[in-house]
Amino acid sequence: MPVSFFKSYSWYAGVQDALVQWWYGHNAVAFFLTTPFLGIMYYFLPKAANRPVYSYRLSIIHFWSLIFIYIWAGPHHLLYSSLPDWAQSLGTVFSIMLIAPSWGGMLNGLFTLRGAWDRVREDAVLKFMVVAVTAYGMSTLEGPLLSLKNVNAIAHYTDWIVAHVHVGGLGWNGFLIFGMLYWMVPRMWNTKLYSPKLANLHFWIGTLGIVFYALPMYISGVVQSLMWKEFAADGFLKYQNFLETTTQILPMYMLRAIGGTLYLTGVFIMTYNLLKTAASGKFIANEEAEVSPLVKTSHTGAYWHHILESKPILFTTLALVAILIGGIIEMVPTFLIKSNIPTITSVKPYTPLELHGRDIYIREGCVGCHSQMIRPFRSEVQRYDPKGGEYSKAGEYVYDHPFLWGSKRTGPDLQRTGGKYADSWHYRHMLTPQEVSTGSIMPAYPWLYEQVINKELTPAMISALRTVGVPYEAGYEDIANDDLDKQAQRIVDGLQLEGYETAADAEIVALIAYLQRLGTDIKAQKVANNNQ
């Protein structure tokens, strides 16, 4: 829902927005980083190996089963969250099913190299492609395993997920691109590769880069999960301070940086090698097409999928149907059946100042390091809400456009941070994090103290959110800035009492207002219940 030319809000909120966004997020991996690269594999790997695809029929089964099953798997990113259990279970079941088509494709690629494995020792193109296909197999096995609830309970929000993603990104996508370029460029310029030795050097540097990147992340992921969940003999968390975990894994981040540097160095080596290759040849602008002689066959004698491939509109329609089935079945009930998103009467819309603070939180990328989702585990409830003992409920997020549950905890969860610290603590923390949080690796945000919020946007923000279902009263946008000024002045007055001077319209004031709001609605409900 547009607010201005450069600003908008998600149409859906909370649980519904999480499901929609992860439907798109997971399927972006499918339709940008998986299926197109499988097409590259099925074309270039046989070319480089000078062997036919091991099994055409297996490739067809691979394609249809992959695009049908992949669509259902998005909710596996939201296990143990406030998403309804039935949607989580669907995501888990179909994620496990994904192993079959994924490994069918991997084996089809590796078996294509039958009779050509002796060339893998010398040919850098084949080396890159073999490692790429192997990385595809590893990541598509690990993904379903991470979708098991008992594994996800340990791995989610840790660096384990970072390692998993980069095995696919650096190994499968990156190495397949490298192999494709090393095969294409010499043919495009009608010459030989400038330096096979540099290509092989690139392969080994890139492989070491992946190892130095992924392995430390696996280690730090296990360390994080074990430390977060460890209880002492007295029944309390052994590492209650989140930063105790952060300081333990800093060496792993350094190794990760070394791995990334090695991988990037390989890219520079390849770029030099390919530029020298192009300089030594002459670009072939037009190449005569060569095809096999056309053999007329009746449809009754042709393989059934050949017939389908000759009808692009029908093929596209069937593919679209296969894709949409899972999305429709998962999303429509979440939107139409109210019991999937139970409401909480104490949860109220954000104030105008809190809305500005939330937008700043999003703009600065805070959600990249902080989650806002306390899962129903004793370790998380005790760590993030030790007094209230409340895990996150679906009804808490009904006014969150967009949702901010997060995927990674480089810092602690913030869903119950409201009222936990004084305004002055947040003021100092955003300016010099290490002063108030020893061991913190969070950067400082000094510009928040100089930049001011744009109060002219407030009416449009209120109007847009009302349009998507937030129950602001009609005409509230006309007086919203009055409420904003009053709340901002209260925060400024409180800061002045503790010796901190700031303007009422400074961005830091709006951000403090938002942070101090988090989790207070659910606390208000608990107080009301206790009073009854």
Note the topology.
Elements: E1 2-4, E2 7-8, H1 14-49, H2 56-70, H3 85-97, H4 99-111, H5 117-120, H6 124-146, H7 149-155, H8 159-188, H9 196-229, H10 243-248, H11 250-279, H12 304-309, H13 312-336, H14 352-363, H15 378-384, H16 423-431, H17 433-436, H18 458-467, H19 480-497, H20 507-517, H21 520-531
Helix pairs in contact: 1-2, 1-6, 1-8, 1-13, 2-4, 2-13, 4-6, 6-8, 6-9, 8-9, 8-11, 9-11, 14-20, 16-20, 19-20
Can you put this structure into words, describing what you see?
The longest helix has 36 residues, at 14-49. The two termini are 40 Å apart. Helix 1 (14-49) runs antiparallel to helix 2, helix 6 runs antiparallel to helix 8 (159-188) and helix 8 packs parallel to helix 11. The chain is an all-alpha fold and 532 residues long. Strands 1-2 form a two-stranded antiparallel ribbon. It has helices at 14-49, 56-70, 85-97, 99-111, 117-120, 124-146, 149-155, 159-188, 196-229, 243-248, 250-279, 304-309, 312-336, 352-363, 378-384, 423-431, 433-436, 458-467, 480-497, 507-517, 520-531, and strands at 2-4, 7-8. Strand 1 and strand 2 (7-8) form a beta hairpin. The chain folds into two domains: 9-289 and 312-324, Cytochrome c oxidase-like, subunit I domain (Cytochrome C Oxidase, Chain A, Up-down Bundle); 352-531, Cytochrome Bc1 Complex, Chain D, domain 2, CATH 1.10.760.10.
Summarize the structure.
The chain is 61% helix and 1% strand.
Report the helical percentage.
55-70%
Poorly predicted tracts of residues: none
Give the tally of β-strands. 2
Write down the CATH topology of the largest domain.
Cytochrome C Oxidase, Chain A
Structural class: mainly alpha
What percent strand?
under 5%
Please give the radius of gyration in angstroms.
27 Å
- Report the sheet with the most strands, covering strand number, pairing sense and barrel closure: 2 strands, antiparallel
The CATH architecture of the largest domain? Up-down Bundle
| Number of discrete helical segments | 21
Please trace the helix and strand order, writing H or E for each element. EEHHHHHHHHHHHHHHHHHHHHH
Globally, the shape reads globular
Count of domains: 2
How would you state the average pLDDT, rounded? 91
